[in-house]
Design goal:
alpha/beta, three-stranded parallel β-sheet
Length: about 100
């Protein structure tokens, strides 16, 4: 029986960006857009909206195919003006 590969094994084998580059910028040099998923473990939308905004600034919308947000409480999407403005920059937004 073949051993199943764990997700972290796949990630450790993926190409790494050059020092000082974010994965998004590395993808931009190859012409590929990324799917950015944040975050199943920690509800960034509900608990840390300012942190989410700061991190999204490192991923320009032109380099992101789809932004996926995981949340149990989407209320900050309605009330946090800066978060809402940041998210509106992305062409495809999926809220789960």
């Amino acid at each position: 029986m073949k051993k199943q590969t764990q997700p972290h094994d796949v990630l450790s084998q993926s190409p790494r960006p050059a020092p000082g580059q974010t994965p998004c910028l590395s993808a931009a040099t190859t012409g590929e857009k990324i799917v950015l998923s944040a975050s199943r473990r920690t509800d960034l939308v509900s608990c840390y909206p300012q942190y989410l905004i700061e991190r999204l600034e490192q991923y320009p919308p032109e380099n992101v195919h789809t932004l996926v947000l995981w949340t149990k409480n989407p209320t900050p999407l309605l009330h946090e003006t800066r978060l809402r403005q940041t998210l509106l920059r992305y062409a495809q937004l999926f809220i789960h």
